[in-house]
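Researcher: Next sequence.
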Amino acid sequence: MDGFTVPIDDRYFEDYTTGATYEYGSVAVTEEEIIGFASQYDPQSFHIDPIAARQGPFGGLVASGWHTVALMMQLFARHYLSKVASLGSPGVDELRWLKPVRPGDRLRLRLRTIDTRRSSSDPRRGIVRTLAELIDHGGEPVLRVTVVNLLSTRDGA
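Model: Next structure:
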């Protein structure tokens, strides 16, 4: 499987173990995707104009941090987050963009389940906190965020 004892479409709160680590991916980043995303959501010159970006603070075109978060979420949802028990998220903690993402970068997702606990207000739900990092082809993290998810328990499903 993928490090879990059950597949993603049968995964509940109880299947997430504190301290467990996983790695998934990868995803390639293209210039066209960088420009397309930023043109719609973050239209700064160093995200949308390769020529102007050369004179900008990064010395070339870089992905929007929000694009990088979206790439992380794509891998997170496809590989880690339960398809049957996810109840959404109250938010994330400590979002950091550590290194610019450039056209041609290939990123993979590294995860560590920080902690799990049953909800005190509804024991049919659990809370899973996960440290998520996107890692570039050189092994360096480009994004780090703590994701908080609410999940149904098996008996609450």
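Model: The radius of gyration is 17 Å. Residues 91 and 129 are 10 Å apart (CA to CA).
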